[in-house]
Design brief:
The complex is a heterodimer of chains A (140) and B (373). Chain A is 16% helix and 32% strand. With 140 residues, chain A is an alpha+beta fold. Chain A has one domain: Immunoglobulin-like, CATH 2.60.40.1120. In chain A, the strands form three sheets. Chain A has a four-stranded antiparallel sheet, with no helix packed on it. In chain A, strands 5-2-9 form a three-stranded mixed sheet, with no helix packed on it. Chain B has 373 residues and is an alpha+beta fold. Chain B has one domain. Chain B is built from nine helices and 13 strands. Chain B has a five-stranded mixed sheet. Chain B has a two-stranded antiparallel sheet with strand order 1-2. Chain B is globular, with a radius of gyration of 25 Å. The N and C termini of chain B lie far apart (100 Å). Classes of the chains: A alpha+beta (140), B alpha+beta (373). Chain B: Pfam families: N_methyl, SBP_bac_10. Chain B: InterPro entries: DUF1559, N_methyl_site, Pilin-like, Pre_pil_HX9DG_C. Chain B: It comes from Aeoliella straminimaris. Chain B: This is DUF1559 domain-containing protein. Chain A: It comes from Aeoliella straminimaris.
Chain lengths: 140, 373
């Protein structure tokens, strides 16, 4: 019994590492979630609220594809590349936003610089899961 | 006595014991379990090849039509035009590209069965529109057997899995995100989408963003200035989620029916098999009873999300059940498999990425103002 105990705990530890790895330590993608608000702490409003991670020219991402997510009423988001839950390919990204009054009018409610990868001042590097990505935007 | 004993002994030594039988059954079971996925994969590969062949045949039929009439068939025809509401909420669709090319697909009988004095939804056209045409069916799609039942659109429409590419703009009054189209939406008083009427000169989103076949309009191959081998003409689509879902209907000339439109940058239906929350926009209400909201979770699980449209525009993207991508036919008749990994602008993202350039047939590497990246 005593001889067996270290084996049991080490296999448990191994199992724990394996389980953790399945959800994030290996692979080309990472889960990215976080929170967006204005500088004064107020939430973004508008019928359409979307955050995007757009790969930069020098991004090392295996698949260069924009990841995006709707922004919830409380400002939270969880990025998706192709299917819900698939996360983001690890690499460098420019962060852009679309916030529209409604799809029918198409009126943008944020500063134009946040809407394009070329002008966006926000750049992030995604290299592991679990990190919180928080962004504060200047008001229009 | 001794001979009988020997006989009994030899008999019992030749019989199988229960354990032996179980072992043999177990081994057979394991072998079948190993083989079954391979058989299933082979069957799907065959269906996929058949799906690809049908697309090729339809593309050639379209090009034969072009040879005869010097222009591609019109994507959708409708006579009524209601400014402001847009074609997305109309019911009286007339002929459409799939009907126009029936003679090129040895479908003269079905073509002649249509009465073009009436809209396709009219009961007189029910026998023709309910005809199952195997060339329009992709065998990989398990949902193309149940006919579409419209409310205002009439009953019994046969399913189809192939759509013509209208272009980067949604069908109807053009409404796309502000960073592409500006806030003023051009009207469509003459029954043509602005991009297709050649009236939309906006620097951010000009008429050159059209695809191959439009509403009440079409192009000659010579007008596909990006090159026929670089421009999408047809794409695969999936048949509706249930009998009331209008997507994937061969004779229904609207986005999702037999057209893909607004499936690029500037909206939430961007890319092949787009899996965003309200991706496809399909008409609702009097025309169609299907509710995208009621079925939201089930649709999301299948990556077939939609929005019951209230804006009078319609959008729909290329979809398939193949692993990893969709088949599209280029304007030169070649068929390509486009992977879901293809670069797109993402949900409501700006123009233009590789997928957008496939969709737009006259863009000549167009970049909207303010989007020079």
């Amino acid at each position: 019994m005593i001889a067996k105990r270290p084996f049991t705990s080490s296999s448990l530890a191994l199992g724990f590492i394996l389980v953790t790895c399945v959800t994030g330590c290996g692979g080309d993608t990472a889960q990215v979630s976080g929170h967006v608000e204005y500088e004064d702490g107020s939430p973004l409003v508008g019928a359409i609220r979307v955050i995007r991670f757009e790969p930069t020219e020098d991004s090392k991402a295996v698949v260069r594809k924009v990841a995006s997510s709707p922004i919830a009423d409380d400002g939270s988001f969880e990025l998706v590349t192709k299917r819900p839950g698939d996360g983001v390919y690890k690499g460098k990204y420019k962060v852009t936003f679309t916030v529209l009054e409604s799809p029918a009018t198409g009126v943008s409610l944020i500063k134009p610089e946040y809407t394009t990868a070329m002008d966006s001042p926000l750049e992030v590097s995604v290299d592991h899961s679990g990190a919180d990505y928080n962004f504060t935007l200047e008001k229009l | 006595m001794s001979s009988m004993l020997r006989l009994r002994n030899s008999t019992s030594s030749h019989a199988f014991t229960l354990v032996e039988l179980l072992v043999v059954i177990a081994i057979i079971g394991i072998l079948v379990a190993l083989l079954l996925p391979a058989v299933q994969a082979a069957r799907e590969a065959a269906r996929r090849a058949s799906c690809q062949n049908s697309l090729k045949n339809i593309a050639l039929a379209v090009l034969n039509y072009e040879s005869a009439f010097k222009e591609l068939p019109v994507g959708m025809t409708y006579t009524a035009s209601v400014p402001g509401t847009g074609v997305g909420n109309l019911l009286d669709y007339d002929s459409t590209w799939t009907i126009d090319i029936l003679p090129q697909l040895e479908g003269d009988a079905v073509h002649d069965a249509f009465d073009f004095d009436y809209p396709i939804r009219h009961v007189l056209n029910e026998p023709a529109r309910s005809t199952e045409l195997s060339v329009f069916h992709c065998p990989s799609d398990s949902r193309n057997k149940d006919k579409f039942q419209g409310t205002g659109l009439g009953a019994n429409w046969a399913r189809g899995n192939y759509a013509a590419n209208v272009g980067a703009m949604s069908i109807g009054s053009v409404r796309l995100s502000a960073n592409l189209s500006g806030t003023t939406q051009p009207s469509m008083n003459d029954g043509k989408d602005p991009a297709w009427a050649g009236r939309l000169k906006a620097a951010s989103w000009p008429a050159s963003t059209r695809g191959a076949m439009g509403p009440n309009a079409s192009v000659k191959l010579s007008q596909i200035v990006d090159g026929t081998s670089n421009s999408m003409m047809l794409a695969e689509i999936r048949s509706g989620f249930d009998a009331t879902d209008p997507r994937g209907v061969w004779a229904l000339g609207m986005a999702g029916g037999n057209l893909v439109a607004g499936h690029g940058a500037g909206g939430d239906d961007n890319g092949p098999n787009a899996c965003y929350a309200k991706a496809d926009d399909i008409p609702s209400g009097a025309a169609i009873s299907f509710s995208c909201d009621t079925n939201a979770q089930a649709l999301q699980d299948e990556c077939m999300s939609c929005n019951s449209d209230s804006f009078g525009f319609a959008q729909s993207t290329a979809r398939s059940t193949h692993v990893g991508g969709v088949f599209i036919a280029m304007a030169d008749g070649s068929v390509q498999f486009i992977e879901e990994d293809i670069e797109t602008g993402g949900e409501w993202g700006g123009c233009c990425k590789a997928w957008d350039y496939l969709i737009m047939s006259a863009d000549e590497a167009f970049k909207p103002t303010g989007f020079s990246r």
